[in-house]
Input
Amino acid sequence: MSEFDLIRTCLTGIGALRDDVPIDVGDDCALLHVPADRELAVSIDTLVSGVHFLADCAPEALGHKSLAVGLSDLAAMGAEPAWATLALSLPSTDADWLAAFARGFDALARAQGVRLVGGDLTRGPLSITVQVHGFVPAGHALRRDGARPGDLVCVSGALGDAGLALQHVQNGEPVDAYLLDRLQRPTPRVALGELLRGVATAAIDVSDGLAADLGHILVASGCGARIELDRLPLADQVAGVITANMARGGDWDLPLASGDDYELCFTMPPEHAPELAVIAAAAGCPLTRIGEIDRRPGLRFVLADGQPWQPQQTGYDHFKGASKIT
Amino acid sequence: MSEFDLIRTCLTGIGALRDDVPIDVGDDCALLHVPADRELAVSIDTLVSGVHFLADCAPEALGHKSLAVGLSDLAAMGAEPAWATLALSLPSTDADWLAAFARGFDALARAQGVRLVGGDLTRGPLSITVQVHGFVPAGHALRRDGARPGDLVCVSGALGDAGLALQHVQNGEPVDAYLLDRLQRPTPRVALGELLRGVATAAIDVSDGLAADLGHILVASGCGARIELDRLPLADQVAGVITANMARGGDWDLPLASGDDYELCFTMPPEHAPELAVIAAAAGCPLTRIGEIDRRPGLRFVLADGQPWQPQQTGYDHFKGASKIT
Output
């Protein structure tokens, strides 16, 4: 099967039908129509075999995740997803693998109203690059630089699940279905992002670990934050790992620095606090207030007894020699 | 140097300054403004080390080429370039390599008015994915499906230069500066593409070889073509290779199937023929009429004596076992 046949069979007709795509896959470019009152939000991300996922990862899950990580970036800007493009490098022509990958990608794309409008398929080490495109009302995107002293720091869902699942996988231990799903099939918080427009002062998606990602908000906004560790939203499995090591007040690296959570961390003025429960219900995910923005630069963690706690890791760095497979 | 530092130092501030980028590199997404009367043209392409270029390729040339191949797709749609995003996988942190790559990318981006608005830098086998974004007046893009019987078939520049350069490189032979430049630093025919709006009935960029790419126009347009081989625009070096093998009427695989030309192939009604010279002068590249569209499906090649000629290759296939490094 030639490259053209492969593209034609597997990478066309993927995702939701949309009426704003004058030309889809199959010409030199896709042609797209952006509404006049909207800004276009775009983000590009690569997942590399052996770095971001294990080579034997189920292709359907990989199809889901490669789109989910981009949609999570759109969510962090408060953008409504519209289109995706896909550049896929495969070591060999494997129609079954490609069909399963396409199924996973397609299911999430349809659920989120996203059309795959362009692709490039090349021979090479397994690597997946996806660019997502979304709309946001002009001037109303959620940015990183709007946090102000006194704002509450909040986070969606739970932290550390994907990191714990990966530890189990790497140790050859059994992984329960909940944790594995959180690692392989993260849920981008798209509805939440749109609901936070006009409410949040800053937002980011937690892909490299809360400490690193909240750190980006703090640097961009020129302020600091105080996080109360006993407020962090944790699954029982993750809470169990933390309390297993109480010598230093608990091992909080898992929820703070293991990455791949794809939750949203956001800040908002305290007067919006009463709306949190309503937004959580509408978005379909828990929202937790975990701390407060203050003037002093830096990120401070406080234990339940008021004592400070120092992290050992500061976030996932894709260029560290011993960087984890996530 | 951490991932974030690397991105900050090398991948920000690249390309032309534009006033339609409310948020540049450094947030979860870039925010972009598309003019209300324009459609957005996008194309994504990957260059893989060892497949599309040699691992020791000069990084500055690679920076140029990785953007040029995308701009060539915009040219083929008649689109005006605006923005690019870059996903770069590097085996290790190499600031010198990255700086040289960025220089090559930046120089072409500035020359074409393109801003680099987003990037992702990951650890992995050397691979470069670029998405380009451009504007085209709504409904006026050059497509592949508009060729009609009686249209002239034309091509810009010269064919087969990059293919011949690659043969020399792979054989360890010296390569003259003209040929090497054509392989490593192709010139995307952006100005030509814009000039062809309203003139050409169909267009494509020649990246996989004229035979394969013109073939896409023919299939999309539901017609055939007759190409007169003695009309093909050839550098002396390429013409020399063809005439060196006259047993079969000359070896025309180089200009027809070696790929990486990044010229435009287009069709137009014969009444526009007198404009060719004017357009060529305005675009700054030669334009040559090489044949004619007819009703009979398929692509036919004719020698100077009127005899038919059969190609041995039909184009570069990225999944062929022995696919060439281009």
In short: The longest strand of chain A covers residues 38-48. Chain A has ten helices and twelve strands.
